[in-house]
Amino acid sequence: MTEPSEPLPRAEDLPAAGPHLDLLLDVELEATIRFGERTLLLRDILSAAPGSIIELDRELNEPADLLVAGRLIARGEVVVVNGNFGLRITELASGGAPSSLIPA
User: pTM of the predicted model, to two decimals?
Assistant: First the structure.
């Protein structure tokens, strides 16, 4: 994890989106940062206790995924911002294929 070099721009600092898109800019969406995943058997979940370790399908240096409403939007590296975790975006999903990413 690294410290971020600069914050993301605020919505009011972005170029005008147009009259129709402006209506949607205040809609709240669920955003999730995914470090990895794993399929587990119910017995493994029930046997988990404090101190248990669940190994994920990603290596430490691989990027984390940013999902919005369950769809992959971007990937990036985990950073610490004022004691909280954050995500520095390094790749954005292309408009035509949500699973393919382009460098940011």
Answer: 0.64
